[in-house]
Specification:
alpha+beta; 3 domains; 11-stranded antiparallel beta sheet; 22 helices; 22% strand
């Protein structure tokens, strides 16, 4: 490894940060910044007002905050196979703390032989805006270049795949760092993303520092805001987001207490940022919770062991683990904060109690948990649903992919063997439900196919393929099936299942929006797809079905529904389900369906089969299988935060169906 000549330290390094992103949305940025280049043995200590302009703390970097930054860098290198001597000189390029805040997308630590000045290794420490960090140990060549596999989630638009080529330059006249990401793993190819910093080091003087602070105040804060601003710009242009796999630091990187609070809770692997506690909103949330708990048939277990609430001795117990965090989250927005508090571990079912059992008493009183006089202020505190989640053709595909393209391996671990992701129909019409789940799913499919009159020679359109269970059943009846989906994962598996069943002559599966279908069909069938259409497009959805039906044809849809008044109250607001599970979704009411049909089509509902409690049982079985198979699921890259998110989603929906807050219907539609 080459020797380097150092500038006078400490140094300010004014320079330029540039990013270049190649497709699917090309984007370039260029910003003037300044960084610090410091010898970690002799960190600058400023006097007077300038102390607020630059500070360096071990807790802002890798390792044990009780030790120095330098000692932690050396310890990390030793942990990863580079035996640095105790007198190793470590030079760091980083942002400093400004007014108590620091954000370093990339901190670079050159580990130098004190005698020869040769670079023994480079430690590159990456921070993302989620409060997570990762350190790479790099052995650079004579040109200051090193390659390493990507091992950390940084941008929401890239997953953790590919290979980096990093180049570091350090001299009295130039400091430069270039990071190239090659997503195909081939560092000889053109990089998909390039980030670079180029600057000229200047020895620190009071005049120079005052000049930099005057020209670029709050440097750390600006860096963080600029990153978020460019991320929002890309998101607004529909650059697809990638699922985040929350990160655990590599061996030798110790998280400080404050950083751990921002990235984990009591459950290992869980990542949910802490929120600021206290304040008037949190106090109001506590008062409202105290009001509500007296009105539900459940109990609340507090950290001091006390039990409160309106339930009796046998009622389910809601355990508050971290009350202050719980009330702080709920204060931000009840519909989102309540679920986020579960994801963070701020509350849980008490030992021996089931999640859906605990949620059920709250679900049955959901409409009156807030005192009636305060409900008139709902619109002042409800968050609006993001406009970017509209279900126009581009948005609909993005919204579907966000849920259904998570992983076929995930869904196969908790669904029945038919891979049917909708309500089953059990033989008996009331709890306790018994019987095989796969048979119950076939019974549901046969029910809706019978309702649509699907048989030998029927030309059938299915809107929403799922993983192929319904289209296979229809083809086995002798129907000629066209099935459309917006999920590439579902398309691939459904097509393969058709091929394996020898039914390719009877089935065509397309990656297509329902608005683009042409032709005439004797039957149109759609199972639990209308929930993803969005109120704005309900008229288009039903008009399309009406247009595609041949004379005398029948449509049958399966729809999850909600009460009409509740739908009107919540249709414009954001919710936990929208944020984390089904972006762009909205449950219709039966009345809304009837009104849209009457105003925009010739179709009318001619038969209605309701079976919401069957859905509660279906969800319970899914959740049981999800928990039983979690070890297998986690091997496919899903973390503890994801587990708790899906546990809450499945348990929350199960409770809603139990108390009839939501329902599911098979609706037959014919022209009047």
């Amino acid at each position: 490894m080459t020797a380097v000549e150092l500038p006078t330290l400490p140094a300010l390094v004014p320079g330029t940060v540039q990013h270049q992103r190649k497709g699917p949305v090309d984007h370039r940025l260029r910003h003037e910044v300044y960084q610090w280049l410091v010898d970690l043995e002799h960190l600058p200590v400023l006097e007077g007002p300038l102390r607020a302009a630059a500070g360096f703390r071990a807790e802002d970097h890798l390792g044990d905050p009780a030790r120095s930054i330098r000692d932690n860098v050396i310890a990390f290198a030793r942990t990863h196979g580079v035996d640095l001597p105790d007198d190793t000189r470590v030079v760091m390029l980083a942002n400093a703390r400004v007014l108590g805040y620091v954000f370093n997308p990339l901190s670079v630590h050159w580990c130098l032989d004190r005698t020869t000045g040769r670079v023994r290794c480079v430690v590159a420490e990456v921070h993302n805006t989620y409060g997570e960090r990762h350190a790479y140990l790099l052995r650079t060549d004579e040109r200051g270049t090193a390659d390493t596999d990507k091992a950390f989630y940084v941008s929401p638009f890239y997953d953790v795949s590919g290979r980096y080529r990093l180049t570091f330059r350090l001299s009295p006249s130039r400091v430069a760092v270039t990071v190239n990401l090659h997503r195909d793993g081939d560092t000889r190819s053109r990089p998909d993303f390039t980030a670079s910093f180029h600057g000229t080091p200047e020895a620190v003087t009071r005049r120079r520092l005052v000049g930099q602070v005057a020209r670029r105040p709050l440097m750390s804060q600006q860096v963080s805001l600029l990153i978020k601003a460019h991320g929002i710009w890309l998101w607004a242009r529909r650059l697809p987001l990638q699922p985040r796999r929350p990160h655990q630091p590599p061996e030798g990187v110790v998280m400080t207490q404050s950083q751990t609070a921002a990235t984990a809770t009591d459950d290992p692997g869980e990542v949910m940022p802490a929120v600021r506690e206290g304040g008037p909103r949190a106090a109001i949330a506590r008062r409202l919770f105290t009001y509500a708990e007296q009105r539900v048939r459940g109990r609340v277990l507090w950290p001091d062991g006390s039990l409160t609430g309106g339930g009796g001795p046998e009622s389910p117990v809601f355990e508050l683990v971290r009350p202050e965090q719980f009330f702080a989250r709920v204060a931000k927005d009840f519909k989102i904060g309540f679920g986020e508090a579960y994801m963070a571990g701020d509350w849980r079912p008490a030992a021996g109690h089931d999640l859906a059992d605990v949620l059920e008493p709250w679900a049955e009183r959901l409409t009156d948990l807030v005192p009636q006089p305060l409900q008139r202020f709902r619109r002042l505190v409800d968050l609006s649903a993001p406009r970017q989640r509209r279900n126009d053709p581009d948005g609909a595909r993005s919204n579907i992919e966000a849920h259904y393209d998570l992983s076929n391996e995930l869904f196969s671990r908790f669904l029945d063997p038919s891979l049917t992701y909708s309500a089953a129909l059990f033989a008996q019409d009331g709890a306790p439900f018994s019987g095989d789940l796969e048979k119950a799913q076939h019974r549901k499919i046969d029910s809706i196919l019978d309702m649509a009159g699907v048989g030998e020679g029927t030309r059938m359109l299915e809107i929403g393929s799922g993983w192929g269970s319904l289209l296979l059943r229809a083809a086995e009846r002798g129907a000629q099936v066209t099935s459309i989906t917006l999920s590439s994962e579902q398309l691939a598996l459904a097509t393969e299942r058709v091929r394996q069943a020898g039914l390719s002559d009877h089935v065509e599966v397309r990656l297509q929006d329902y608005r683009d279908v042409r032709g005439k069909f004797d039957a149109v069938v759609s199972v639990e797809m209308i929930e993803a259409v969005g109120e704005e497009y309900w008229p288009t959805y039903f008009q399309t079905i009406d247009t595609l039906l041949a004379p005398g044809g029948t449509a049958a849809i399966q729809a999850i529904t909600i009460g009409h008044e509740r739908m009107l109250e919540t249709r414009r607001s954001h919710s936990w389900i929208l944020k984390y599970i089904f972006p762009g979704g909205l449950l219709p009411s039966l009345r809304a369906i009837d009104e849209v049909l009457a105003e925009h089509t010739r179709l009318r509902v001619t038969h209605d089969l309701a079976f919401g409690h069957h859905y509660a049982e279906t969800l319970h079985r899914w959740r049981t299988r999800f928990d039983d198979n979690w070890d297998e699921i986690s091997r496919h890259g899903f973390d503890e935060r994801f587990r708790r998110m899906w546990e809450f989603y499945l348990g929350y929906c199960e409770a809603g169906f139990r108390v009839d807050y939501i329902d599911v219907h098979q609706l037959q539609m014919r022209r009047s």
